[in-house]
Structure formats: structure tokens, C-alpha cells
């Protein structure tokens, strides 16, 4: 007689995973503020007394084909951090403080060792982002995913005072543009990365072999976790230092920074003003990728870009340094059509 388990869905393993998640989240500092993991919905008590016009800000994103690198190397510790970063950073650049996070994990077949590592990374990311993990979903889908396949998506909600929302409406001519360093590739452009490095039968040896240019193996470089900038953004926003900010993800600097500009202003960026991590020129050389394409796809060493009044420059750079980030002025806002213009 057919059963749910014979169809490829293991309820007992799913229940075991829920117990694992519940135990891990119970150790986080803010877990007492919400309902226990495993109920039908996640609860978050919203304290709005300090807000006159509170606005909720939401984001939904995944990790993309970086998952395939993690699968190839059986290394899952940092993927959860990436997932949180992709969502919480997007919320924080709007001026909002992340409140809570939910994840969606789809698998061909549950692997509790792998899943526990993924969840541990998500919890670690939430702690860094000062954001509470209140729930999620684990879907066993054997007809859609192969046995070892999996996918991740995340959902973050934050809050901001309406008058403190960051964005194009606050940007003015003469504002400075500050770049904050990335941790390499972060979680974008991996379809092209895999085409450059891993389109041969030697992909496993390439991933594991020490690369003298990078100072580590290629696989270790590709799986470095995305920086979570929420604490920095929160501190800068609280002090009213920012006009706007941009999380540099897919689309690179031109595609993301332009979203923070009004229609009549452009960002003029000096390319030589920051240090580009070694992974980018290595990819460009091996893949014979045009410089324009590199800037269209990758962050090129800047995971976060801030726009601010010149009077706030020293305070912003000091705070970034205090939090362990390399940051420098990389350009200025000038009159012109809404776009990013590069100069040497």
C-alpha cells in the first residue's frame, strides 16, 4: 500500500528538523519575543510607540546558483548567512531596522546533516543582522528536485519612520558617494562564475586546489559569506548621516546605485578610488570578460554604497572603520540624467 514516505516525503525527518531548529532558535537572545518555532505562523509583537508614522519594509530573495558551489564542495555553513544578507541588506538600505526573518527550504530528500548546517548559518546571519528568525517552511518535493538538490529563499521585514526613509528623494547635487568593501563575490553572478571556472570536467580539482593568486582554494573564495551591513546602516541612519544607500547585488554598481538617484542627478564614480579584490581580475583574465560586463554583473569590491552630505564624511568613515569595514569616498553626485558614470 503506498505511503507518503514511499512517495518520497519523510514526515519523521521533517519533525526532527523542526526540533533542531526550535532548539537552536531558543538559544538566541530575542527568541522570547515570539511564538515557538513549529506553530502555523510566526508571531512578532510590534512595538510602535517610538514611531509617529511607522512603515514596514519587506524583501524576498535567494542565494542563486552559489548553491551549486556549496553542493559541489559539501560546504553549507555560510549559505545561510548569504541568505540573510541578501534580504536584510536590502531592507536596511531603505533606512529600516530588520525585525524578523523567515526562510523557505525546498529539497528533493531531507538530509538532516546538511539542513542543520544551513539553519545554523541562517541563525548566525540573523544574530549578526539583529533580526529574529520566527519561522519558515521546509518542502520535500521529490518529483521536482533530484535527491540531493535543494533551494533556499528568504523573507525579511523591517521598520522605519516614514520621514526617515532613505532614497532618491533625499539625494542632492554635491552629495558625496562612499563605497564600503565587499567580501569578494558575495552571492551574485555565479552563473557566469561557473561558466568561467567550472565548465570543464576538472571542476572538483579546481575548487579544491590552492590558488596562489587568491591565497586560498577557489572553492573557499567562492563560498566566502556575504557581508551583512545592517548594523552599520542602522547606526548611520539613526544619526541621520545618510541621504540614500544601495546594496550592490546582481546588476553591479550601475544597476543598483542608479536606483538610489533622482531623475536629474547622476553618480560620477572614480574607478581607481578603491581596491578591487583579486578574484575579479582573475575572472576577467581567465574568462576574457570585458570590463563593462564585469561592472554590469559583479560588485567589483563594493558591497554597499552610501550617499551623504560632505559634512558627514568623517563620521561615516569612522563608523565604518569601527565596525571593521574598509570604506572610502569614491565619487560625487552631479547634475545629469539618472545613471552611473565612471571615470579613471
Written overview of the protein:
With 344 residues, the chain is an alpha+beta fold. It folds into two domains: 11-164, PurM-like, N-terminal domain (60s Ribosomal Protein L30, Chain: A, 2-Layer Sandwich), CATH 3.30.1330.10; 168-343, Phosphoribosyl-aminoimidazole Synthetase, Chain A, domain 2. The protein is 34% helix and 24% strand. It is built from twelve helices and twelve strands. The strands form three sheets. The protein has a six-stranded mixed sheet. A four-stranded mixed sheet has the order 1-4-2-3, with helices on one face. Helix 4 (112-129) links the parallel strand 2 and strand 3 (132-140). Helix 1 runs parallel beside helix 4. The chain is globular. The model has no long low-confidence stretch (mean pLDDT 92).
Structure summarized in a few sentences:
The protein is α+β, with helices and mostly antiparallel strands and 344 residues long.
Largest beta-sheet details: 6 strands, mixed
* Fourth CATH level, the homologous superfamily of the largest domain: PurM-like C-terminal domain
End-to-end distance: 71 Å
CATH top level of the largest domain is Alpha Beta
As residue ranges, the low-confidence spans are: none
The number of E-state strands comes to: 12
CATH architecture of the largest domain: Alpha-Beta Complex
Structural class: alpha+beta
Q: How many alpha or pi helices?
A: 12
The proportion of residues in beta strands is 15-25%
Helical fraction: 25-40%
Spatially, the strands of the biggest sheet line up as 8-10-5-11-9-12
Reported by name, the CATH topology of the largest domain is Phosphoribosyl-aminoimidazole Synthetase, Chain A, domain 2
Amino acid at each position: 500500500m503506498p505511503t507518503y514516505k514511499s512517495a518520497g516525503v519523510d514526515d519523521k525527518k521533517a519533525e526532527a528538523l523542526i526540533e533542531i531548529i526550535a532548539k537552536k532558535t531558543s538559544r538566541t537572545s530575542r527568541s522570547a519575543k515570539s511564538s515557538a518555532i513549529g506553530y502555523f505562523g510566526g508571531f512578532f509583537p510590534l512595538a510602535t510607540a517610538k514611531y509617529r508614522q511607522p512603515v514596514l519594509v519587506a524583501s524576498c530573495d535567494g542565494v542563486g546558483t552559489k548553491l551549486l558551489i556549496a553542493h559541489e564542495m559539501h560546504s553549507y555553513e555560510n549559505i545561510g548567512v548569504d541568505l540573510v544578507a541578501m534580504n536584510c541588506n536590502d531592507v536596511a538600505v531603505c533606512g529600516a531596522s530588520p525585525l524578523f526573518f523567515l526562510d523557505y527550504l525546498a529539497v528533493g530528500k531531507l538530509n538532516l546533516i546538511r539542513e542543520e548546517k544551513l539553519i545554523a548559518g541562517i541563525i548566525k546571519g540573523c544574530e549578526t543582522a539583529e533580526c529574529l528568525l520566527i519561522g519558515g517552511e521546509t518542502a520535500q518535493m521529490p518529483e521536482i528536485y533530484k535527491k540531493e538538490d535543494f533551494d533556499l529563499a528568504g523573507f525579511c521585514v523591517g521598520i522605519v519612520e516614514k520621514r526617515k526613509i532613505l532614497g532618491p528623494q533625499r539625494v542632492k547635487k554635491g552629495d558625496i558617494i562612499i563605497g564600503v568593501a565587499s567580501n569578494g563575490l558575495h552571492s551574485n553572478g555565479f552563473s557566469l562564475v561557473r561558466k568561467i571556472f567550472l565548465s570543464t570536467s576538472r571542476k572538483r580539482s579546481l575548487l579544491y586546489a590552492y590558488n596562489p593568486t587568491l591565497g586560498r582554494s577557489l572553492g573557499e573564495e567562492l563560498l566566502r559569506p556575504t557581508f551583512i551591513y545592517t548594523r552599520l546602516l542602522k547606526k548611520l541612519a539613526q544619526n541621520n548621516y545618510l541621504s540614500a544607500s544601495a546594496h550592490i547585488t546582481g546588476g553591479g554598481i550601475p544597476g543598483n546605485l542608479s536606483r538610489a538617484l533622482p531623475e536629474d542627478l547622476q553618480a560620477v564614480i572614480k574607478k581607481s578610488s578603491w581596491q578591487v579584490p583579486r578574484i575579479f581580475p582573475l575572472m576577467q583574465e581567465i574568462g576574457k570578460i570585458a570590463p563593462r560586463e564585469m561592472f554590469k554583473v559583479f560588485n567589483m569590491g563594493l558591497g554597499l554604497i552610501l550617499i551623504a552630505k560632505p559634512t558627514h564624511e568623517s563620521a561615516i568613515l569612522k563608523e565604518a572603520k569601527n565596525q571593521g569595514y574598509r570604506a572610502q569616498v569614491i565619487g560625487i553626485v552631479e547634475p545629469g540624467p539618472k545613471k552611473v558614470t565612471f571615470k579613471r
